[in-house]
Structures are given as structure tokens and as C-alpha cells.
Write a structure and sequence with these properties.
Layout lengths: L5 H18 L3 H5 L6 H10 L2 H17 L14 H5 L1 H14 L1 H21 L2 H12 L5 E4 L9 H4 L3 E5 L2 E12 L6 E9 L11 E7 L5 E3 L13 E11 L13 H37 L1 E2 L2 E2 L4 H29 L6 H25 L1 H4 L5 H11 L7 H14 L1
Parallel strand pairs: 1-4, 2-4
Antiparallel strand pairs: 2-3, 3-7, 4-5, 6-7, 8-9
Helix pairs in contact: 1-6, 4-8, 6-7, 6-10, 7-8, 7-10, 10-11, 10-12, 10-14, 11-12, 12-14, 12-15
Bound molecules: flavin-adenine dinucleotide.
Flavin-adenine dinucleotide (FAD) binds next to strand 1, strand 3 and helix 15.
């Protein structure tokens, strides 16, 4: 049977203690917008020596590059740092952070996983060192910008952000919206369409990723959006007003590599990366619900004795088992060097996100009026869970992806 290793289970215990001691007391202030998540993310990294591990991993990468190995932009375990090197460990981190505060996990994952991960997967060695390393060590915060006000589900076709070639560089214009960490990020991975000829169909222009920095002339960001959930993760816009950059900001520094593939890799990662977040939320909601069902009485009996409440607990348990199994299947496949198809990744995200929203809402229901109160963690979980059915591709887009693969075979 596949399970977390003893080492990963130990890491999980230590992380849980850190989350209970350090993260939980700060959640109310983060949820009210009185405290940003970033210092706490840095504290997490420093407690667990993440920065040192990343730097050591980079030093090895540079040494190998100096010997003429692995200097190009390609996936490599060694290059991707400690979390990517151990997917089980990164799952454990996502589970534990999500058990306490999914919004905090979203801010953490968008910076390290999406922004840092995109540069690590496709950047040159110089780009990795300049842009990814400070993000992976938490010195800087990253944001990953694909979505636009007019292009979410249809992100590639509907994209209006353009990069015009000028001299040996590019001039970028456009707006990105709903971007996690955008209001406070230092490093931005943004996607733009390269304008080749004025008369070409804008839907089919080649898309490339660029790495921008706060301080680049013409780049600005909006205020954090006021949203339904994920309050501990600031979300906002990136405005690009004729931002002139050199070729060194084109991710990979080569136009010929089809950059849609790079973005698709991140979509795939976002979809598979959702399972541990879902598991963290579901586990917490189930535990809180069981505890509550034993102590809350109605008509002189604990509500856990009523079969309608038992059905809720049993469904939560069933979803937890299924999500855990889906996650373990993913981890097992990664261990074998196998990659899930896009339909598999979509099916996993679709199931996990729907199940998690159901579980969190049922936990609220089981707790009655208390469940609707901020004081009870399931209230935050229910609002946060809903995002999982929207971000990283909506439920409907996952369904289309699955159906497309089924009908093509
Ligand atoms: C809190 C939060 C954080 C986010 N973080 C990031 C981030 O860091 N980076 C980033 O790039 N993006 C981010 N996003 C954006 C997110 O990925 C998009 O919101 C999502 O992809 C949906 O796009 P949309 O909002 O434009 O919805 P739309 O595309 O406008 O969809 C509206 C509705 O139409 C449905 N729909 C669309 N097309 C079809 C179709 N062909 N068939 C059937 N139904 C369809 C959708 O499923 C949805 O129900 C974030 C969003 C939120 C809310």
C-alpha cells in the first residue's frame, strides 16, 4: 500500500505543531486583512531551513553547469529545489497549511510553486539564479499572471496582453487580473502574445512568458480585491503600460520554444497540486465535525446519534478516503516517473474541488448557527473551498478537458 514515508510523516508532525503554534494565532488578523502572510511565510522557511536547502541545491546546480551539464532550461529534480524534489513532502506542507488556513497556503503555493516553479522549469540558469532563487528562499514574493479581465477560461485565445518586439527586446502592454500575491509581489511571471504581423489573427499569436520585477518602468499593481474567501491571500491586478524589457526577461531567452507548453505545464501542476489542499481542508472539517457531533446535544441526545448527521459524517469520510487515494495515486505515479494525462489531472481536480466544497458546507450545516460564525473554522473553510472550483480552471473546464480526451480516443 502506498503511504507517506516515515520521514514525511515526521515532517508532517513537526509542521502540524508549527501551524498550531505559529500560524493559527495569526489567522484571524490575516483574514481581516490586518496582517499580510509574507513575514509568516518567511518564518516558516527559516524554521525549517528552506532557504539554506534551496541555496545548497542551487550551488550544486551551478557547479554542474560550470562542468557543462544541465545549463539549459529543462526540468531536472536537482534544479527544482527540495520541495519539487520530494513531491510527498510538498504535499505534506500543502495539507498542513491548508488544515489551518487555505488562504495562507494559496499565497505560499502561488509564490513558490507557480511563479518560482515556472522560472525553474523553463528559465535559463541566469534567470533561475536572478528571479527564482530569491522567490524560493522567500527573500522575494512571486506572482504568476495568466488570467486577464477578458480571458480566464479562454486564457490563451482571449489573451490581449502583447509583447511587441523592439530593438533586441520587447515592449509589454496589457492587464492581468485575479492574480494571487500581485498587490505585494516583487517578481511577476506574466504571459503575453508576441506581435509578429499586424494582420495576423490575434487568437493564434504565439504566447511567451516574461519575468518582470516591481520597479520596472510601466509596471504597476492594484489594491487587493475584496473577495468571498481566501482572505489570507491577497489577489489583484497587474498593469503593464509599455514596459520595455530586454531579451533576458523572456523566459528561456528563446522565442522558438512554444511557450504555451510552459503555461500548460503550470496548469497541469495547478490541477494536480490542488489535491493536497483539498485533503487538508476535508480532514480538518471532518475532525471538527466529529468532535462537535459528540458534544452538541439536541432533544437530550448528542447530534451524532441522529442518522441524518451520521450520513454527513460518513460522506465526509468517504470523500476524505477518495481524495487521499487520488493524491497517493499521483504521488505513486510521480515516483515511477509517470505523468498523469491532462484528463486524469482534470478528473482529480474536479472531484477533489467539488467534494471539498460539499464537505466544508456540510460541516457548517452540521454545526448549525455555530458553523456560520467566524469563531468556528469551518466557516472560513467553506468560503475558501469554493475557490478550488474556480481557480486553476473551473469545474466546467475540467469537464470539457475530460470529455475532449474521451471523445478523441
Ligand atoms: C482568488 C483567486 C485567485 C486566483 N489566482 C490566480 C493567479 O494567481 N494567476 C492567474 O493567472 N489566475 C488566477 N485566478 C484566476 C482563475 O484562474 C480564473 O478566475 C478562472 O480560470 C476562471 O476564469 P474567469 O474568472 O475569467 O471565468 P470565465 O472564464 O469568465 O467563466 C465564467 C463561467 O463560464 C464558464 N465557462 C467558460 N467557458 C466555458 C465553456 N466553454 N463551456 C462551459 N462553461 C464555460 C466557466 O466555467 C464559469 O462558470 C485566480 C482567481 C481567483 C478567484
Amino acid at each position: 500500500m502506498f503511504d507517506f514515508s516515515d520521514e514525511q510523516k515526521m515532517a508532517q508532525q513537526v509542521l502540524r505543531q508549527w501551524c498550531e503554534k505559529e500560524l493559527a494565532p495569526k489567522v484571524p488578523a490575516m483574514e481581516k486583512g490586518e496582517l499580510l502572510p509574507y513575514d509568516l511565510m518567511r518564518a516558516l522557511a527559516s524554521t525549517f531551513g528552506l532557504a539554506e536547502m534551496m541555496k545548497a541545491s542551487f550551488a550544486r546546480l551551478e557547479a554542474r553547469a560550470a562542468k557543462g551539464e544541465a545549463a539549459g532550461p529543462k526540468d531536472d529534480d536537482e534544479e527544482s529545489g527540495v520541495l519539487a524534489k520530494d513531491p510527498g513532502l510538498s504535499a505534506v506542507v500543502a495539507i498542513e497549511l491548508s488544515r489551518q488556513c487555505p488562504g495562507f497556503m494559496l499565497a505560499f503555493g502561488a509564490s513558490l510553486g507557480l511563479a518560482g516553479g515556472a522560472v525553474m522549469a523553463r528559465g535559463t540558469l541566469a534567470q533561475k539564479k536572478r528571479f527564482a532563487l530569491p522567490v524560493l528562499t522567500l527573500e522575494k514574493i512571486g506572482a504568476w499572471g495568466m488570467t486577464e479581465p477578458g480571458a480566464g477560461s479562454d486564457a490563451f485565445g482571449g489573451m490581449r496582453t502583447v509583447a511587441r518586439r523592439e530593438n533586441d527586446g520587447y515592449v509589454l502592454s496589457g492587464t492581468k487580473s485575479f492574480i494571487t500575491n500581485a498587490p505585494f509581489a516583487d517578481v511577476f511571471v506574466v504571459y503575453a502574445k508576441i506581435v509578429d504581423k499586424a494582420d495576423e489573427d490575434p487568437r493564434h499569436r504565439p504566447i511567451h512568458a516574461f519575468v518582470l520585477e516591481r520597479g520596472d518602468k510601466g509596471l504597476s499593481t492594484g489594491k487587493p480585491f475584496d473577495k468571498m474567501g481566501m482572505h489570507s491571500s491577497p489577489t489583484g491586478e497587474i498593469f503593464l503600460d509599455e514596459v520595455c524589457v530586454g531579451r533576458d526577461r523572456l523566459l528561456g531567452e528563446k522565442e522558438k520554444e512554444p511557450s504555451r507548453e510552459g503555461a500548460r505545464d503550470v496548469f497541469h501542476g495547478e490541477r494536480t497540486g490542488m489535491a493536497p489542499m483539498c485533503l487538508g481542508i476535508v480532514e480538518r472539517c471532518l475532525e471538527e465535525s466529529v468532535k462537535y457531533a459528540k458534544v452538541r446535544t439536541a432533544w437530550g441526545r448528542p447530534i451524532g446519534e441522529y442518522q441524518l448527521m451520521q450520513e454527513k459524517l460518513a460522506r465526509m469520510y468517504m470523500h476524505r478516503e477518495n481524495i487521499r487515494n487520488l493524491l497517493f495515486k499521483q504521488l505513486w505515479m510521480q515516483k515511477q516517473g509517470q505523468r498523469q494525462s491532462m484528463a486524469e489531472a482534470s478528473a482529480c481536480k474536479l472531484y477533489c474541488a467539488r467534494a471539498t466544497t460539499e464537505v466544508a458546507l456540510e460541516a457548517v450545516q452540521l454545526m448549525g448557527g455555530n458553523g456560520y460564525m467566524r469563531e468556528y473554522v469551518v466557516e472560513m473553510m467553506a468560503r475558501d473551498a469554493k475557490l478550488l472550483q474556480i481557480g486553476g480552471g473551473t469545474d466546467e473546464i475540467q469537464i470539457l478537458t475530460i470529455a475532449r480526451q474521451l471523445l478523441a480516443s
